[in-house]
Write a structure and sequence with these properties.
The protein is mainly beta. The protein has one domain. Helix content is 7%, strand content 40%. The chain has 3 helices and 22 strands. The strands form 5 sheets. Strands 2, 3, 4, 7, 11, 20 and 21 form a 7-stranded mixed beta sheet that branches. The two termini are 32 Å apart. Pfam families: DUF4249. This is DUF4249 family protein. Keywords: Membrane, Transmembrane, Transmembrane helix.
Length: 335
């Protein structure tokens, strides 16, 4: 008899994970805060098998304004990503935001389409628009090894990850759940897939109302929204067979104690499930973050800074390379 299937839930890894915990923690929490935290780096972004370019955000862990969660972008780092398998080294370009009337613009060269492209953001995001770096020639390819090198203030930080091939979602449907007398029935997405044999598989799920064709998982949009939408969940196949049928995908566990299911798209809309491959190292980091999140006394704060990173030195965040598959469905209002 197989052991019960379980899924761990994770809020997105963002800048809030690092600095805001101490503003409202309700329990005593022992964390290993280094003396040189002010010189540290908060790192976000990923390489995917989706269309390039890929975007990364570097900022300082000390808030400019704790009330508004403003963090200073790092614009004087050298960021290099190498496709070790293909022997291609890419020195990322800093995107300098340009102010407009109530908005600002981020311009970059899309080497896939061979066109200059522009993203318009609200002026409210101005401070967050600093410290964004973009790739100039690299592609995410399944099975390839990628190395990250960050040079900042005389320090060298590095990480290496392999892009584990994607696992296809073979079926997606929604199922209604009765939550008891007096409560409105809820629903959840159910998926089926076949695990890759002979290896340990680790996954990151994302439930969204938009397809990755509209907002790629490594796009600027996802980069900016990563620490606002707590809608990720992780899964290990340790307790699963090769063929997985009708597995419920959670909308993720957040830091604000929002009821389960709150992040699902509205009934009558479409729902898209993205299933991303992650390494054992990344899975363990997310899992540790979940553990810390669940023991913070219920404070409306992210996890403390003693969650490990897979990047060497005084860096918080994860260097992740993920291949993903996606499936979408329209949610009938009759469900």
């Amino acid at each position: 008899m197989k052991k019960p299937v379980y899924i761990n839930y994770i809020a997105s890894w963002g800048i809030g994970f690092l600095c805001l915990f101490f503003l409202s923690c309700e329990e005593e929490f022992k964390v290993n805060m280094p003396d040189n935290v002010a010189d540290g780096i908060v790192f976000r972004g990923l390489i995917s098998n989706g269309p390039p370019p890929y975007f990364f955000h570097l900022n300082k862990p000390a808030a400019i304004s704790a009330e508004k969660w403003h963090y200073e972008g790092i614009e004087d780092a050298e960021v290099v990503i190498e496709d070790v398998t293909a022997g291609i080294k890419d020195t990322l370009r800093l995107i300098v935001p340009r102010k407009g009337d109530g908005v600002f613009y981020l311009n970059y060269w899309n080497y896939r389409t061979q066109k200059e492209e522009e993203v318009m953001m609200s002026s409210q995001e101005w401070l967050r628009g600093h410290g964004i770096y973009v790739t100039t020639k690299i592609y995410g390819i399944e099975g390839h090894t990628y190395m990250l090198d960050i040079y900042y203030k005389g320090e060298h930080h590095t990480a290496t990850e392999i892009m584990v091939p994607k696992t296809e979602i073979t079926d997606l449907k929604v199922q209604s759940f009765d939550l008891g007398e007096g409560k409105t029935a809820s629903w959840a997405p159910i998926i089926s897939f076949v695990n890759q044999p002979e290896i340990d598989n680790y996954y990151l799920f994302h439930v969204d109302g938009h397809s990755s064709l509209t907002f790629p998982i490594s796009s600027i949009y996802r980069l900016f929204r990563a620490d606002e939408h707590w809608s990720y969940s992780i899964l290990s196949d340790e307790h699963l067979g090769d063929t997985v049928v009708d597995l419920l995908v959670s909308d993720g566990e957040g830091v604000r104690n929002i009821a389960p299911g709150s992040h699902y798209p509205t009934i009558g809309d479409s729902v898209f499930i993205t299933m991303e491959s992650i390494s054992k190292a990344c899975y363990d980091i997310y899992d540790k973050a979940i553990e810390q999140l669940r023991t913070d006394g219920g404070a409306y704060t992210p996890t403390p800074t003693n969650v490990e990173s897979n990047i060497s030195g005084n860096v918080w965040g994860i260097f992740r390379v993920s291949a993903y598959s996606e499936k979408g469905i329209f949610i009938d209002r009759r469900h």
